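Example 3.2
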Amino acid sequence: MSQYKIDAGTGQHIGDRAEQQDRVAIFGAPNAPGYMMAVLADGMGGRLGGALAADQLITTAKQLFADFAPASDTVEQLLHDIASETHTIIKLAGVTSDKEPHTTMVALVLAPNGVATWGHVGDSRLYRFKGPDFVEHTVDHSYVEKLIGEGKLTRDEAQSHPLASVLVNAIGSKVGDPLVSIARYTGLKAGDMFLLCSDGFWPYFTHVEMGAAIAANKPRDAAEMLIAQARLRAVGINADNCTFAIVKLV
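Structure, written as tokens:
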């Protein structure tokens, strides 16, 4: 197994909004030495509602990861359980609330056997890099991505589509239970990098810019640079909350 050390950090800015409804966290598992999780939530649902939904996702993820036992549990099931339990709690809270809270999710788990597993719901993304080179990113659960998949819309047309921000899959949604898209990568080694981010971050950067900034800097320094640049590029746009987590293997 390749030996590596994990260097990680987070970045966050409220943007031009009145409230920060994104949440992000990185933590270990008490019962699973060598495992780590990074998780990000982009809450939606009006004043305070989105923040409550995002808070619940982080709380649920931390609680379930604390109980995670590699001998009997799988990471894939863990990610499904995080989304499912959060969805149930949010729906129960919504019975007595008019906020209709819901949230996206993107979560990454690194295991000591060199396997990375991630899951997402909505349009918060995970990007994977080898050094500064972009490899892949998750596909949004959005209306325009659905149209692209059906051949009814080109990617260029999607960028200016009036329903570009509409999700077809979210945690807490009244439409139905969330569907978690799962992916994995084996053979982790030094130089592998991951970026988890909300949709208030990724529209402002190319894959090349992301990879270069993260590869050349420590996570904290990269976070400061990326937030500063995002704010410059968002002038006059009424920018959304901007949140991300960087995980580097060094």
